[in-house]
Design goal:
The radius of gyration is 25 Å and the shape is globular. It has 22 helices and no strands. 77% of the residues lie in helices and 0% in strands. α17 runs parallel beside α20.
Amino acid sequence: MNTLNTRAAKFAAALSQAQHYRNYTVATDSRADTFHVVGAGGTISVLYEQIRNAAEYSEDHLLLQRAIRRFYTRLFITGDIKQLEESGSELITELTLSGYLANDSIPLSKVDVLTQTAADYYAAYGTIDKSPRTVQSWVVDVLAIEVHSHLTDYLVRETFEQFVFEQFKSSIDTTSLYGKKAPEDYELLLFIAVHRAILKSDDATIRWALLRRFASTPRKLAEYQRRNKAIDDLLTTKDNKRLQRMVNREGAVFRILWQTIERNDDAVTMIEKPGSFLQMFEDTVNMTYEDIEHRMNRGVVRSILFLIITKAIIGVAIEVPYDFWVHGEIAWLPLAVNLALPPLYMLLLRLTLLMPGPVNTRALVSQADTLLYGKKQPTYEAPKTSGQYGTIFNTVYALLIIGIFGVVSWLLMQIGFTIVHLAIFFVFFCTASFLGFRLSRNIRDVETVENGINGVVMVRDFIYLPFAVVGQKLSQGYAKFNIIAIILDMVIELPLKAVLGLIRRWGSFISSKKDEL
């Protein structure tokens, strides 16, 4: 009968310790006095968060930490020392009213820890002599992840992260990847690749994880700045793209393994029973397929909301004034096409996204069997790049992109589109294509068997891939300068949260007055 191999046995032992510690912490917290939120504005806060999240279009697992980051961004910009001294309770109040935390779920002792943590980072925030963007990423973004780690369970995740890192470290054929000796910072690049490809971490989470790995904190400011500068170089290096592609391509079995651990409290004990655990793993595969279906449906709705919100603002700010200036009236047909076509296009893309079949499920179970119980571990080789298919394929692909954009432009100009209308159309159509591509990545993340390309898929890829490539570039620029998010943060969120805070304080004042009677 198969037993856990050496690395898997080490992982199971570490995972058991992490879960015991988590259970101990949960039991301790359940007996402690907790922070109770009493205040108005819960419905408004939840509604605003839905709008704000649609405008930013973040991954679901990043929403809480993004909300935390916005809180500390506002706090640090205002520089209100009194608010800083109450920041722990204010944060928990805001997150509870916004629906991220259950009421009475956070111990009072943890609220004090959050306040002290914010004070440590605020001291660095006012000391580091760098650009505002750099200080934001070195201090505020890291603080958000640090606070997030106090509010959620990170220890089990870190245990899994280390197992995946060690597995890839020993199994990757670096010669096929680099053609020579691996770079000196290869292990750090691999650590980043595992975070990005397997755990879907953003740069802020990766930065925090690396700083934590080196035990670097704002209290040791000189070292903290030196580490952050080195991390900046690692996060922006181009050497990591092919390594990340390799990890991503081989990552399906690890992602399902993580889902198995997250979904089942008894996964740690069952892992020593191959038959039972592999059945649990297979059940998780099927449940993950169902979750992906639901997640893609939610993603379509969020994508359409994102497109409508941004299109409405840009239409009011650019398209309608342009029409009055040039034509003396609103050009209704281009406006209607630009507003309606990208959402409809998103719906059509969703209909072409099909889940993997039983062959993929059996392959995933077989890989899990080898990973945990096999004596001989697989070797991962570098995937092919588009450049390896030759100049002809790449030339034809470039001509196709030019041709598709040219034909679409000509057709739209026949119905009254001007250059401005075309520019707005392509921005939104390319954005919709990239959002559709991101939805398809949910399926690719659990695929380990290449599906054959049928006629529908080939036509879909032929049409939308060029737009998705451009949409990716636009989305990267949008993420750096999200004008919609900035408007929401400065024009709506800042005064909204200030007013709600004032209302809560007024309620506390009235309550104290009643107590005095």
